[in-house]
Amino acid sequence: MENFRKESDLLGVLEVPVNAYYGVQTQRAINNFKISGQLLSSYPEFIKGLAFVKKAAAKTNYELGLLDENLYFTIAEVCDELINGELHDQFPVDMIQGGAGTSINMNANEVIANRVLEKLGKNKGQYEFCSPNDHINLSQSTNDAYPTAIKMGLLQMNISLVEKLEKIVEAFRAKGKEFQDVIKMGRTQLQDAVPMTLGQEFEAFAATLEEDISKLNNNANLFVEVNMGATAIGTGINAPVGYATLCAKNLAQLTGFPIVSAPDLVEATPDTGSYVIYSSAMKRLAVKLSKICNDLRLLASGPRAGLSEINLPPMQPGSSIMPGKVNPVIPEVVNQVCFKVFGNDLTVTFAAEAGQLQLNVMEPVLSHAIMENIHFLGNALDTLREKCIVGITANKEVCLNMVKHSIGIVTALNPYIGYKQSTAIAKEALETGKSVYNLVLEKELLSQEKLDEILDPKNMLKPHNK
């Protein structure tokens, strides 16, 4: 039995694995683009996005009288199979490719066509009965189907990323409640500032990340505007009258997202602004996440010669030469993910800027950078939450002793003895090693009762009147 079948295209005849649902154009892409090693099959949401687009297109073509009923329903069945996760191994093209996404679009067209042929009792490659171009790609171009599929994929991926973000916010908030009575020194510029609670610090981590939930969702909402019906450049050539609006309506019905047709399809076809702003929201999240990981590593530093205010869960031995050393490997790996996100955001910026005239041919690397960022960030959020945040414990006595011996508490005396006197007390405490408390009493600046009230750490955690 032969292991290959022969298919032909513009460039000639090519052998395709006999059992493959993809065809000649996909095979050319496999041969031409051995770039990233990350295949379309690595991103199931993207494949589902392609299937939603092809199903909506088929439904629209059927409703406009361009597809017969049997072929439409069979195409719809195959698209549902892809949406349900079947045949994803038939999408072997590299995410980074030349051709403005034509290889990915044709990969979908060929897989759907050959599966339809199989359901109709035909052989793979008998395209006279169901053609990748004439039936699956009917009334479409790569230039509208491909970016629309990207957007459908990103809308799905954003839901998953936000769910992971919500979970880590909850984890930080739970630690905030757990540590609400742990008094510690706050710091600015790595120097002692004023007292706070460890709970306030962790609640702040939760609050800053929570802000990015709405940012991600709001920016993802820009993906609901699509250019289906634009075909090649936005003029709608080869698409019937009314196709664009009806296809967007059908896509909204199928996906559950409020999809609308872009008001100017010529503008929408090369436009990549929605990708840029969504990528910027991920960069913002990554900046905050990396800062938090820096803080966790500082707070856990030591354990004997650092701050040692918290303990991170020990995950693995930290050295091949230093016995007993345990490193903060989880915050470290999340830091590195964030650096990757920063770099991919720059890739998105350059790719978006590189659009020329009526098309941006750099959408493959642009979409890959965004999807990789979502994938990396989602994994990093889960890893940080599961393997670090939930297991953090506080060194309560260490935190309290730092407050008691800090010069920073002199700030609380400003409203009572003035900035000049407070500065003098702080300077003398630093030079002599005496405590702020004893110096104030020695100089009879305040009564012991009043001083105890002012310097009670709990009284320095929120605004109050003199």
Helix and strand element order? EEHHHHHHEEHEHEHHEHHEHHHH
Mean pLDDT: 93
Unreliable parts: none
Gyration radius, rounded: 30 Å
Number of strands: 8
- Determine the structural class based on helices, strands and strand pairing: mainly alpha
N- to C-terminal distance: 93 Å
Estimate the global geometry from the Cα principal axes: elongated
Strand order of the largest sheet: 1-2
For the sheet with most strands, the description reads: 2 strands, antiparallel
- The helicity comes to 55-70%
The number of distinct helices, counting runs of at least 4 residues, comes to 16
How large is the share of residues in beta strands?
Answer: 5-15%
Keywords: Lyase
Protein name: Aspartate ammonia-lyase
Pfam family, one: FumaraseC_C
EC number: 4.3.1.1
Provide an overview of this structure.
The chain has 466 residues and is mainly alpha-helical. Helix content is 57%, strand content 7%. The strands form four sheets. A two-stranded antiparallel sheet has the order 1-2. It has a two-stranded antiparallel sheet with strand order 3-4. Strands 5-6 form a two-stranded parallel ribbon. β1 (4-9) and β2 (12-17) form a beta hairpin. α3 (69-83) packs across α4 (102-119). The protein is elongated and about 100 Å long. The mean pLDDT is 93.
